């Protein structure tokens, strides 16, 4: 089984990106964080189902959706892992999809911890 090429040191959240886009509007930034966390949990659950079912088309679409959402928030590690998952599902690499999903879940927990610490 191949390991992800995503460096473990990739920043969890790029606050400078959010500050660049939104300035010092901390209330809006916090709202974005909260929306991302509440909308990503069910998306990950659905992604898990599609991976288990080896539904590569749905996995690819959900990974693409998640990669975009993570990129918009500045969740760099999640974005990169979701892109790898999107590519792996496009190549029908079931084992790699499972591994990347596990990495994505861990990255999401890291994002949740950072978001929680900002409150």
Task: Describe the structure concisely for a colleague.
By secondary structure, this protein is mostly helical. The protein has 5 helices and no strands. It has a single domain, classed as Four Helix Bundle (Hemerythrin (Met), subunit A) (Up-down Bundle), CATH 1.20.120.
Cα distance spanning the termini: 39 Å
Structural class: mainly alpha
Average pLDDT: 88
Record field, number of beta strands = 0
Strand content: under 5%
Q: What's the helix count?
A: 5
Radius of gyration: 14 Å
- Taking pLDDT < 50 over at least 5 consecutive residues as the criterion, the unreliable ranges are none
* Broad CATH class: Mainly Alpha
**What's the name of the CATH homologous superfamily?**
HPT domain
CATH fold-level assignment: Four Helix Bundle (Hemerythrin (Met), subunit A)
What is the oligomeric state here?
single chain
CATH architectural grouping: Up-down Bundle
Number of domain units: 1
Q: Please provide the ordered H/E string of secondary-structure elements.
A: HHHHH
Largest sheet, if any? Answer: none
What portion of residues is helical? over 70%
Shape: elongated
């Amino acid at each position: 089984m191949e390991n992800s090429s995503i460096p473990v040191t990739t920043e969890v959240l790029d606050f400078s990106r959010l500050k660049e886009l939104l300035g010092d509007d901390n209330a809006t930034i916090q709202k974005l964080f909260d929306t991302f966390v509440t909308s990503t949990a069910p998306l990950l659950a659905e992604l898990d189902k599609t991976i288990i079912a080896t539904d590569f088309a749905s996995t690819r679409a959900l990974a693409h959706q998640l990669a975009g959402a993570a990129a918009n928030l500045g969740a760099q590690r999640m974005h990169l892992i979701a892109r790898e998952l999107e590519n792996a599902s496009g190549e029908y690499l079931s084992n790699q999809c499972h591994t990347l999903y596990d990495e994505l879940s861990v990255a999401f927990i890291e994002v949740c911890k950072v978001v929680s610490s900002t409150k």
